[in-house]
Amino acid sequence: MRLRIAALWGGITLLGLGVAGTTTLTAQETENPYTSRIDVRMGQRQFRAQCAGCHGLNATGGEEAGGPDLTTGQFRRASGDPGLFRVIRDGVQGTSMIGVGTDATDQSIWQLVTYLRSLDPSVAAVDLAGSAATGARLFAGKGNCETCHMVNGQGRRLGPDLSDIGRQRGPLELQADLANPDAEIDPRWWTMRVTGPDGEVVEGLRMSEDTFTFRIMDGDENLRAFPKYGDWSYERIQSSTMPSYTESLTTEERDHLVAYLSSLRREQ
Q1: Do both 39 and 66 map to the same domain?
Q2: Does one domain contain both 167 and 253?
Q3: What does the pLDDT read at residue 127?
Q4: Tell me, what's the pLDDT at 63?
């Protein structure tokens, strides 16, 4: 896939986090050494574990989350990656922004910086090989994506809602998702196969589970509850229900589909 990503790690305008104190960075902290696709993913995991309570699961903030939107590429109190590193580590004095502290490794903080940079809409302005318009037709047609996914209220709920996927994942990640959907499966999208005493088999998304029961949503989007102890046996399936598109779509068609998915950004 041919990508030309514009100014991914360059300096940016005044940013919307705050800088605390006068802590100086060491020589190795002046340039981010962790900027790979894996670092973006690790940074996203850390963000969701440590920062989502205030800034929202996808860093979009809002009244309910309490913290500012961090996806605009504009941070009030940090200029450049070293400043953003400082804010994440030390917090912002006099505000509710509490840093991760000096016990956090430099690598983990840089990965958070990398993840936040990946959300910048100017970074997402890439010269993609595919056509978003052609990708939209593939999504609804040959790709058969609407049978599981919803976009802006249209489609089904058997897979993640993709209305904002272009903000959440970069083009390279989307290409990887199409090629190897089993690489990383959120437990929310595990499925369960239930077999009755007469051989009846029911499969569906694992919606909830406790000590004694579980619920699934079957292929017709019906919710069904089952006891864990009784005549029905069950198994969890932790692989993706989404097929790999390396055989069903050409490289060019996958480029078109990625261009379309990259364009999906819900208005804030």
Answers
A1: yes
A2: yes
A3: 59
A4: 63
